Each structure stands twice: as structure tokens, then as C-alpha cells.
Amino acid sequence: MIRLRQLQALNYVLSSRTMTAASELFGVTQPAMSRLIMQLEEEVGCQLLRRDRGRVRLTEEGVRFYEKAEEVLSSMRELGSVAESLRRDPKGEVRIISIYGLVNSLIPTAIASFSEAHPKIRITIDVLNRARLEEVIHERQFDIALATLPVKSPPSLTIETLGALPAICVVPAKHPLARKKVIQASDLVGIPFISARRETLLRQRVDDVFERLGITRVMQFECHNTEVMCQLVGAGLGLSIVHPFVRNPVDETYVIRAFEPSIMMEYAMFRQPRDEITNACELMAGHIKAETRYLSALSSRKLRKR
By the 8 A CB rule, do 212 and 225 touch? Predict the structure, then answer.
């Protein structure tokens, strides 16, 4: 069977006129180039090239063969251009599902940079509680899912760990505890606490820490949305422990502090099996990973400076 690489080798030989020059341009040794031409001639069943005063020329049969070969090579170049265009300017839709803790800081920035580069791709976002998110993952009705581990999922899915970071404490800027570099669990005794909802993994892990230490908090507020939780803190209604992907407020109403004992949260991105991932999904995943790396580094720097 005639192979594309053999046709490409023939094209290089005719363009260069010598086997030596052609092999250098093609990135192979001269014997390897000669073998490709010989294999092609064996497949065709006749001699395609002859040497004439040190130059390589087509035989009469070679001329007739090369006319069709050029059409094939031209078609392959067009296909390559189409493929490159699809890579640079993909179309379609990316369906993202996420837990509440990531939707405020991580997803909007990643989507903004992605949409600027690929404005023709439509994006849908669903923010789900943990139980519903696991259901949708099992139903495989998504392109990208963002969650804290562990998550029950089909083994065929593509899973990438985005990193593990400690949850952070959010403190009103004018609160006495804002002067501390690290907030201890014991510091929150008797202080109103703004908590995540009961069904979230963050809430479960925070509650476990305080129950293990025998520390009672004033559980006055409960909320799904990390951004709203931070706004409540900024309004002076209490302190909170939230996911680490939090940006400093423009109005400087609250500050971010490390919390001890540390509550580690491991984040992951779920996608379809590798042979089913669309190009648009792959590109979106790249933006999410880049933004995750940036926010992780930013969070680490902010906590080290305190």
C-alpha cells in the first residue's frame, strides 16, 4: 500500500533535484530516503526516477504517477489547513458544572480569557450541590466538572487533580483578629460564624475540626455562595472559613488569614474519556488549569506575607 510519507519523499526529491539535498530537508539519512523511493517504486510496479547528470528526474511513467500524487499531497495540505483552522477557531459548546466554592473566583476569570480567544464557543455553567453534581457526573451530561475530592465517578472519565490547598479564614478588616497572622480555631469561641451549607464537603470538614477540639461556635449564618459569605464578613456580621480561591475585596472590608488546624481541600477537574474530549473542551480545560495555578500561587503568597 502506498503511504503518504513515500509520496512526500518523492516530492522532496523532485523539489531538491538531488537525493542528498532532499534527505537533509526531509530530516532523514540519504539511505533512508533512497529506501522510501525504492519502496514506492515497488508499490507502483515501475521505475519513477532516473539519474541524469547528477540530477534526479521523473521517468515517463513517473510523470503520469506524479500528476496524481500532487493532487493527493495538495489535498493533504488543505486538510492540514482545515485542521489548523479548527484548532485556532473551534466552534461548539462547553458544558461546565461546578461546586459553589469555585464558581465565584476561578470560573469567571478562566471563562473570560477563554472567550476572548474563542468567541464563537458557547459556554453553559451549572452550579450544583455535591449530591446533584455526583449524579450529573455519573450521567455524563457535562464536558467539564469541577469539584473537591473525593467524588464518586465512572472509571472511564478523565480526572486531573488541580491541587490541594488549605481553606482560609475571612475576617472583617476592623475586627481585632485581623491583626493576627494565623487564626486558631480557639479564636472563634463566642464569635458569630458564617458557615457553608450543611451538604457541602467544606462544611463537613470545618465542623469536624471544631467538634474534635470541642469548640462551640455561634452558628448564626449559613450560605452556599463563597462570594456572599465574604460580603457578609465584610459587613461585620462574623468570620468565616472558605475555599482558598478568594480575591482581596476592592473595598478592603475583609482580610484573608491562614487557619489552624489546617483544613486541606483537594480540587479536581473531570472530563469525558480521552477519545471523546472535544477540542473546545480541551482548550477550556487549559484556561481553567492556568487560572488555578495563578490563584493557588496568589493565595500562597498572600498567606506568607501575613
Answer: no
50-91 pLDDT, tens per residue?
A: 887 768 888 888 888 888 888 888 888 777 766 665 566 566
In terms of Cβ atoms closer than 10 Å to its own Cβ (0-12, 13-18, 19+), residue 274 is: exposed
100 alpha carbon, distance to own chain's centre: 19
Nearest CA to 134 out of 165, 104, 157 is that of: 157
Residue 83's Cβ-count burial label (10 Å; 0-12, 13-18, 19+) is exposed
Burial class of residue 96 in the structure, from the number of CB atoms within 10 Å of its CB (0-12 exposed, 13-18 middle, 19+ buried): buried
- Among left, alpha and beta (phi > 0; psi -120 to 50; other), residue 27 is left
What range does the domain containing 252 cover? 166-265
- 159 lies in the same domain as 179: no
Question: Do residues 8 and 69 lie in contact, with contact meaning Cβ atoms separated by under 8 Å?
Answer: no
Q: Based on the fold, state whether residues 22 and 100 are members of the same structural domain.
A: no
Q: Tell me, what CATH number does 148's domain have?
A: 3.40.190.10
Those residues whose C-beta lies under 8 Å from the C-beta of residue 239, and which sit 6 or more positions away, are: 169, 170, 171, 172, 175, 177, 183, 188, 191, 192, 193, 194, 233
Q: Directed axis angle between helix 279-305 and helix 106-117, to 10°?
A: 130
Q: Which has the closest alpha carbon to 252: 162, 143, 179, 171?
A: 171
Find the CATH number of the domain harbouring 42.
1.10.10.10
42-51 CB contacts, 8 Å cutoff, 24+ apart: 43/1, 43/2, 43/6, 44/2, 48/10, 49/10, 49/13
Determine the average pLDDT of the residues in 103-116: 84
Indicate whether 271 and 159 sit together in one domain.
yes
* Same structural domain, 84 and 104: no
pTM of the complete model: 0.66
Number of structural domains in the chain: 3
